[in-house]
## 1
Amino acid sequence: MSKLLEIKICGIKDKDSMNAALNNKANYVGLVFYKKSPRNISIELSKELLTRRNSYTKIVVLTVDPDDILISNIIFNIQPDFLQLHGQETPERCKAIKTKFNISIIKGIGITNKEQLIYSTKKYGDVSDILLLDAPSSTLPGGNGTKFNWEVLKNYDYRKKWMLAGGLKFDNIREAIKITNAPAIDVSSGVEVRKGIKDSKLIEQLIKKCKNI
């Protein structure tokens, strides 16, 4: 895969999809722990899927405004490389989680315009290891298949790593990268046959295409 582009496949909850992501060397695999999501997964199934865990693909656990009990349970059982906070977590809460649990943080943020992008970057930049810039949503926090105006991210200058999310799929990934010059992408609904159901062939096709961008 290109050194200039990393890919995260989020919301995996079956063996075929996990195998497709691992075999095709996705840089990150995301597991969702949010009961309202169609991609919600259990600790037990997660442990089963992670039996083929390798040293290349980083494991990300997505949560929404988690309490310390849930975080402790996740870290004890799954030992993720990153905890993705995709709710209304404040910078203070992000920092507290990062410090208490000694874990790297990805902070998901809904982007509406340039001003909000600048504000959010300043607000969360120091307390997160990776910023994930997504389309804003009033329903599920992420994975809605909704793209936002990528022109907002044109010439985005951020000193740390960031990911582009929101409606990315095989047909538009090249355009998205051309406009935003994103160093990493996060794909969920774009590799699904229906909401919450991943397709291993779509995962393979998208990752292979990304290798040639």
## 2
Amino acid sequence: NSDIWVEDGAPLELAVDAVLEGSFDLIGTRLLFEDHTIQHNEITFERSSVTGDLYIALHPRKGLPAPADERGIEPAAAVTGALMVMSRDGYERWGGLSEDFIRGDFEDADLCLRVLQGGGRVGIVRANGIFHLERQSISLMAGESMRSAITYLNCIRFNRRWSDFIDRMQN
């Protein structure tokens, strides 16, 4: 995303190296808010009564202080599209980011699940140094009720495609 800035390039180097050596097919990095709390540390899926028991994409530890001592790569179910690393061949093999989703929301998780379904590996670099001014540009796109409706529509589309796969993955 255009609202990412890199204070320490080491996490990005870890991600690139892991993709180049073939240990992961798609990797995201931890992203921090300006106050050094966690914005993104991976994506997990949980059913929500708010969405009629559909899976929603959660960002565990969001808003919590980022541990200073973590510096590794771990497997993940999904990572944010705000900053992903994958080879061009992998991007083409798994069909890239789907244009089925309106204005963001779920296209990153959709790509990650296609990678996993195809036998690939998704990972997250758990290291600090990259920041993201999350969704600040989206506030310029329509009102709150319209943004909520778009997110719900994307959630429905995502669940039609992936709820059975997520069920199997979590069991």
